[in-house]
């Protein structure tokens, strides 16, 4: 009887852990968890890992799920932390291969344009560099 109860409890615990694990293992959900964290260092780490995240996703998921997530993230943090914005500006400049190539590069332009309009000089300069890089890829 006791063995049967223990077996049931172990199965139920494993089932609960599997459910929790499945809920927490989506890379985009993990990014959101870190990106919206109160600690700026955690946010920076999340943004710096964007290329790795994009590689883990396929180009379709990056275009259709990660890019909208980044647009929302940018709207939320726009006035909060210049360092995170600067790193995001830099990372977006490297994103053309992750979204399917030059054919889809235009998807990055609205975020980079918004970042290029910030008050912070360093963020603005990084965003302009990234815009120039993306534009050069688009032109040829």
UniProtKB/TrEMBL annotation:
GO terms for cellular component: cytosol; nucleus; protein phosphatase type 2A complex. HEAT repeats lie at residues 108-140. InterPro entries: ARM-like, ARM-type_fold, HEAT_type_2, PP2A_Regulatory_Subunit_A. It comes from the Eukaryota. Keywords: Repeat. The keyword Repeat applies. GO terms for molecular function: protein phosphatase regulator activity. This is HEAT domain-containing protein. PROSITE patterns: HEAT_REPEAT (PS50077).
